[in-house]
Structure prediction request, 139 residues.
Amino acid sequence: MELEYDHSMKDFCGTCSRCIDACPTEAIHENGYLLDASKCISYLTIELKDELPQDYKNKMGNWMFGCDICQDVCPWNRFSKPHQEPNFLPHPDLLSMTNREWHEITDDVFKKLFIGSAVQRTKFKGLKRNLNFLNPDNE
Ligand code: SF4
Ligand code: SF4
Prediction:
């Protein structure tokens, strides 16, 4: 099927290397433009179905689902605009969860907090795996 497409994106990075420098797992190649998904916290905490690799224990900070540090540090993202979509807002109970409640989360609470959310992608089992992996020193 012939699709309508636009041109490839221009390179606006210049000499910036903020995302490369900020990535805690060195998932982005030192020369940029190449990302090793198998090292990326977003992949590890969302897509990986096996156990998390032990040698990442001290690199993953407090991330229990996704990461996006590279997006946070990118100077171009300061031009992004906050969404106005109520369906994207977090469940109100989510924001009041304590550290202890996260670690004691049950399947029922998971379902209630993340109904209709992309967090369902990792399932309760995956989120528990991620929580159990967090370094207690970071809590
Ligand atoms: S999402 Fe996090 S771990 Fe993945 S490339 Fe970006 S900074 Fe690195
Ligand atoms: S932080 Fe943004 S502008 Fe800087 S190198 Fe990464 S993608 Fe390019």
User: Anything to note?
Assistant: The chain has one domain: 18-134. The first helix runs from residue 18 to 22.
